[in-house]
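User: I'm curious whether this sequence folds into something compact or stays loose and floppy. Could you predict its structure so I can see for myself?
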Amino acid sequence: MSVKLTSHQPAPRLLSLDALRGFDMFWIIGGGALVEVLARCLPYSWLQSLAKQMEHVPWIGFHFEDLIFPLFMFISGATIPIAILSRLEKGTPKRDLILKSAKRMAILVILGILYNGTFRYGFSNVRYVSVLAQIGVSYFLVSLILIHTKTVKARLYWLVGILTGYAIVQLAIPVPGIGAGILTPEGCINGYIDRLFLPGRLAYGHDGMLPRTASGIYDALGILSVLSATGVTLMGYFAGNILLEKDIPAGRKVWTLLIAGIGLIVLALCINPFYPIIKNCWTTTYNLLTGGISFMLIALFYLAIDVWEFKCWTFFFRVIGMNSIFIYMVAVGGLIDISSTSVSLVGWLAGSLTENAGQLVITLANITLAWLLLYFMYRKKIFIKV
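Assistant: Here's the prediction. I'll summarize afterward.
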């Protein structure tokens, strides 16, 4: 599958998925920055606590910011019953579906390399892994699993196998000179595997992300992390499969998703004391927790939007969700310098205010310009798909 511009509305789908995807992307394009600026402007303790949730946990632990990426992968998995399985049921050859998924993976890997600034800074010290690459590889692996299995039960076995097998690898296989189950940046087997087999630059060191010119001891998006992330994408498939099942009443779908989410969260918290929740090496407990929260969010969005038909509030998010990859490359990857445009338009106002108030104006302008760009594309029915 190639990146394409479509001149028509995509095939009918659950509005709740587009709204949830847009809600997720909102925090990336400026929602998190907005909360942080508001916390500096207003002296409310609850706002200070919320602002802390907009920062990644350095190693062990969990903040809201650590949910954004796996939630996107979960939603990606939820679309697979429409994108792949429905075509398989209509007689599309398996080979064609595998090839489509492989092309999608290749495009996302290339876009990820572009996002990492390789074409801007040159090919020395390249970081090959990326958020986009992890999405593409995980989607491809889940597609292979679904195409070659026929029952939900078999796919559940795969999910349990991935989560359990990954935990065994992290806890039981020793790193030479360090030992087994040492879940630190230096001792985790993820970094050892990355140093052995991952080409290019490793982006993380002892204290987190390193400058582009340096190479670290592990990568949060490395080889084992990509394999583990397949788990949360596969969880998304189960959620999508439940939502699209015609024989299940809507209320039962909601309760099934909520119960699954609560169960996964409780399981993660029970295991956490001896197998901690760590985003940067994507532990199984991290999969369980983020998957559980994602199940609950998709249940609530489905209930509000597709069951109760309370849709008016979703338009803002749906506009973002319809072009999620594009706005990620623009807002985070820097393909379009929205911030400079904002300064050009409202810099005079920001400059006349206090530093924090001025930053608030710029942040609001960034969000507004990004949304207006997406709204223009929405009105013109331009949807960039991979």
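Summary: Residues 1-12 have pLDDT under 50 and may be disordered. The chain has 16 helices and four strands.
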